[in-house]
Known about the structure:
Layout: E1 8-10, E2 23-28, E3 31-36, E4 42-44, H1 52-60, H2 69-86, H3 92-115, H4 125-139, H5 149-158, H6 167-190, E5 196-204, E6 210-219, E7 225-235, H7 241-255, E8 261-266, H8 273-285, E9 297-299, H9 301-315, H10 317-330, H11 334-344, H12 347-362, H13 367-374, H14 383-399, H15 409-415, H16 427-434, H17 439-449, E10 467-468, H18 478-496
Parallel strand pairs: 5-8, 5-10, 8-9
Antiparallel strand pairs: 1-2, 2-3, 3-4, 5-6, 6-7
Helix pairs in contact: 2-3, 4-6, 4-18, 6-18, 7-8, 16-17
Amino acid sequence: MEITEEAVIVNSSRLKSVVWNDFDRVKRGETFAAICRHCKRILSGSSTSGTSHLRNHLIRCRRRSNHDISQLLTRGKRKQTTLAITNYSYNQSAMKNEMVTVASTSFEQGAKVRNMGPGSLNFDQRRSQLDLARMIIMHGYPLGMVEDVGFKTFLQNLQPLFDFVTVNGIEADCIEIYKKEKQRVYEELDKLPGKVSLSADRWATNGGSEYLCLIAHYIDDSWELKKKILNFLSVDTSQAEDMLSELIMTSLRNWDIDRKLFSLTIDNRLTYDKIVCRIRDQLCQHRFLMCEGQLFDVRCAASTVKLLVQDVLETSREITNKVRETIQYIKGSRATQEKFDEIVHAPDCIDIVSNCMKALYSGHAIYSPLAAHGQNSSSETNGSVVKDRLSGFDRYLHETSVSQNTKSDLDKYLEEPLFPRSADFSILNWWKVHEPRYPVLSMMARNILGIPISKVALESLFDTGDRALDHSWGAEKSDTLQALMCSQDWMRNEVEDPKPPVFALRSDAN
């Protein structure tokens, strides 16, 4: 319908629907039209057309004030509630009373929403974009989901005022969130009362790319064990040891924790020996490490056990093959099986089995071959290394002790009776309570208990290879991937506040 000069505006104040507050009702001849006061769109204004199409237009009208949408939604709920009530098999008078009650309640709720003011219900496009980016980070969704047709349709029906974002736009939002979260973590590390221990883990993607994940482990001022990913760095397996060590040192300097570093937990591989030595030498030059770095190198317990099992299996392979051949021979014929059963049940066989068990428990059958193999192994398993590290710990105690004129914290601690053990005993809570009594020793406990004895999570304890990256983010650029991985770790820690058991992978409490 075209509006000409012959058309006249009809007074719509007598119309009951609130939608006419946003429309001008125009009459030309016998035809009525409704003109939106915000976007000037012309719709049917006939009384036979109803007002549903007008209400739907106002919801989607981008030029309309946002805070008035709640009024339409309230009226929509009122209509749905009224229709639901008419479906009940009430008598006529009861149904009328129920409808009046519901209509009155809906009107009061709508009035409350309108009285909240225009600013309280305004749609915030920027806030919604950042919420979308946080959702993608926290749950590991692919960034490309923002351009999926189904997702766009869902958003359009949920909030027509939301402007769709592109993959590049949501990537920029994720980077912005990463920078803000990184600043919070930086300030937290800067205020730590103790040292920071670092662990390094390898990740791999389906495309063959490899990444080095650096994780900070520490105990905060509330005596809670914390773990945060600091960097997720792209690495080249062909890089020399000095380049990898410098990559780690650069990360430590950027976080300003090189002077706060206490230990580094890494795989027990020969390729990492030179890397650890280079990092330790650089830190010792500035006297950043305790005990001249003797407590710095910590090899992952899970990795060490895996190498130990591999050595045992390799050593016992010949024996295992002979046992298998013997079993196959015995089961090869019925006569041989019967002869074997006769020997097993003979009286002298009991003494033979007993002697074998004694040999097993005394270590002759297991530990002697392993020890012989260990002499040719490159792993640090000899007693001199253990002795050196214990002497380094003794020196650490001496350096952090108080003056010799007074009784040290260690002396007072050793004079205390043993604390009774229980299933719910928390060593961190114990030190939190006794920190005023042992100020120096508690500082040492904070640093030592923050050392991860293994870099492998409990759910991945028996994995043999590098950790695999989820395919949703595997194709992202290295900088974007680092922002996603770090932000996800920081945000999940904040929301879920996980408190892992302190001694799940640690030694005895006493």
